[in-house]
Amino acid sequence: MYRVSSFLMHFAFALSLGVVLATCWVNLSPSSYYDFVEWRVLDISLPLWLLPAESTFTPQSIVTQGLMALFMFLMGKEMWEALIIEGGGLSDKRSFVPLAGVIGGTVLCAAVWFYFARQGDLPEGMSVSTGWPTPIGSDVVIAYVFGLLIFGKGHPALNLLLLICIGSDFLGLIILGISHPSQDLLLLGWLGLPALACLGVWRLFGSHTYGDIKERTRRRGLALWPYVLACLISYVGVSKAGLPPSLGLLPIIPAIPHANRAFGVFAEAEWLLHDPLNRFAHFLVKPLIVILFLFGLTMGGIDMQAHGPTTNLVLICAWIAKPLGFMLGVALILALSKGKLPTRISLTDMTLIAFLTGISFTVPVLSLDVALPGGSETEAARLGLAASAMMGPLVLIVSRLKRGLRRETMR
What we know:
With 411 residues, the protein is mostly helical. The protein has one domain: Na+/H+ antiporter like fold, CATH 1.20.1530.10. It has 16 helices and 2 strands. Helix 1 packs parallel to helix 10 (276-299) and helix 11 crosses helix 15.
């Protein structure tokens, strides 16, 4: 198994720096912070077929609805390669085990949210079905940092952790889009636009890079500009359909030519590959460091006085329901299929991974404005999502203690 590239540590540092600065700012001078993130940078009028007639761009909306689509594109690239390339992390029958874990964690997380929401007095503006997709996603960047400290470089559990976190993120955003549909169902017809863009760019360019073809034709298929254009068209279609704009670039990924060998999630070895999909990834790495800093700055401001019922509910789901549901899903699929855990992954490794998925920040925070009605409950949920990162140090301590006990036993 190849080592994970060091750029994920740069992502973690940039995100953390943005969150720390935003948190200091929002607690010391909340009015100026909110004035900044909601500052009307630009008001433009565009045709109705492209965007609503009046579109207001703020620092927060530019980052969350625009730039973070690039981050999700990189996540989608890794997930797609893991699924379809031979030897990828999710390309064999043993991939059903982590997938069952993700589904199990999602189901129990939702069930616990609904249960506690029905038991307690809901804040004004919230219903029982409000906000439940919030804690479903996991934080790829922060979980990687603690996964690296626990498993070490090159351990297959680290790659599996990244794939599970990515899968949870996508499932959470998809559920968010389905559970909070646009009032006009006719808008879903806009999903035909990304479908046509994907099929068109594959037929005209992507398919020309495989098989016995002329070199000139192959080089035309390796150019990046057709896929950039298709991504822009796809982004418009997904946004107009009422789905999270951060998913706007994903439909084009299957049409972009990729390598024929898997090296692992975010593997260092991928820097030696020059297929179009990996070239996109290479180009995005440095800009994403800045983007994640801006995301932390505009969406990561944690109001330390915002604690409320939603904070507790988020933590119950992230710390208890999701890890427990994950392990129940794994146990169920192993019992039904009489299968085995992924290669070189022990039950202890899988349990540690389950609890690390309880770290929920980046992508769950991205969904807050849609999943919750705003105001104090959104800030309370943000506090809970930030506090969920404390699961990382706890899992690290437990793993070190277990390792120490094992060494004592062997002496």
